């Protein structure tokens, strides 16, 4: 079964009332089955980002676009998490941003990380 067929099957299972659209709570529950625990507010934001027809739900095409984005994020994370820790350190993020061409003030970056996240 190709990836499109797998995604279609998955989408149809999540769309339990067969409307052709899934809601944020349905998507959140589906993520949870795959051990991906996102707050509902994050799932709602994902839907807003990919709700191209602006109906407040996600159709199959929008779901495919979200899936592509999540796979890119997962692949990027995996390439940055070279030590296999399951999280990124500020050094990992700093290195990635510099490789992407961002010119960062190192002390300011680490100060921001310290103030914004509980890394240290």
Give a summary of the structure in a few sentences.
The protein has helices spanning 3-14, 24-33, 40-50, 60-80, 90-99, 106-116, and strands spanning 21-22, 58-59.
What does this structure look like?
By secondary structure, the chain is mainly alpha-helical. It has 2 domains: 1-79, EF-hand (Recoverin, domain 1); 81-120, no CATH class. It contains 6 helices and 2 strands; from the N terminus they run H-E-H-H-E-H-H-H. It has a two-stranded antiparallel sheet. Helix 2 (24-33) crosses helix 3 (40-50) and helix 3 packs across helix 4 (60-80). The longest helix has 21 residues, at 60-80. It starts with a helix and ends with a helix. The mean pLDDT is 90.
Name its key features.
mainly alpha, single chain, 120 residues, Recoverin, domain 1, 2 strands, 62% helix, 2 domains, two-stranded antiparallel sheet
Q: Examine the coordinates and then state which fold CATH places here, giving the name of the CATH topology of the largest domain.
A: Recoverin, domain 1
Head-to-tail CA distance between termini: 46 Å
CATH architecture of the largest domain: Orthogonal Bundle
Spans of at least 5 consecutive residues whose pLDDT stays below 50 are none
Mean of all residue-level pLDDT scores: 90
Number of strands: 2
**Main β-sheet description:** 2 strands, antiparallel
- Total count of helical runs of at least 4 residues: 6
Strand order in the sheet with the most strands:
1-2
CATH class category label of the largest domain: Mainly Alpha
Q: Report the C-alpha radius of gyration, rounded.
A: 18 Å
Number of domains: 2
SSE pattern:
HEHHEHHH
What do we call the CATH homologous superfamily of the largest domain?
Answer: EF-hand
The rough form would be described as elongated
Q: How much of the sequence is in beta strands? A: under 5%
């Amino acid at each position: 079964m190709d990836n499109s067929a797998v995604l279609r099957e998955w989408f149809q299972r999540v769309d339990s009332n067969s409307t052709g659209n899934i809601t944020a709570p349905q998507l959140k529950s589906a993520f949870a089955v795959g051990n991906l625990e996102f707050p509902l507010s994050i799932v709602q934001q994902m839907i807003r980002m990919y709700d191209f027809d602006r109906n407040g739900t996600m159709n199959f095409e929008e779901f495919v676009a979200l899936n592509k984005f999540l796979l890119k994020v997962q692949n990027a994370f995996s390439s940055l998490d070279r030590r296999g820790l399951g999280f990124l350190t500020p050094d990992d993020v700093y290195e990635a941003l510099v490789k992407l061409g961002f010119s960062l003030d190192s002390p300011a970056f680490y100060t921001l990380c310290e103030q914004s996240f509980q890394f240290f």
